Predict the structure.
Amino acid sequence: MFSFILEKFFGVSNIIIVLLLSVCGFLYYENHSLVLENNQLKLTKEYLKNEIKTNKEQLLKQNKAFENLKLELKPKEALKEVSKVKEIFIKDKNCESELKAYKELFKILGAKQ
């Protein structure tokens, strides 16, 4: 009777069934793990999308602030051409000293630029 029970439980067909059930259990466990990982990746994707959206909004705000701070540059007005004076007529000694003072002042101002 004992040998009959062993034959019944450890027959070839039963071993195949046990192996198939084991493989099915393993695949079920792997599938469940992959589903959990997929859900985690979906959550991470949504979080990153939200972060990108927030960063874009902040960037737009900064760009608007920069636009408001930007100086509005106007084109320089055309410089008036100044012709050189070839000869200066001096009235008296007082004018001559005043002219020398102006020449020195212009030299100093010209050197600073």
User: Anything to note?
Assistant: The first helix runs from residue 2 to 9. The helical segments are 2-9, 12-69, 93-112. DSSP finds three helices and no strands in the chain.
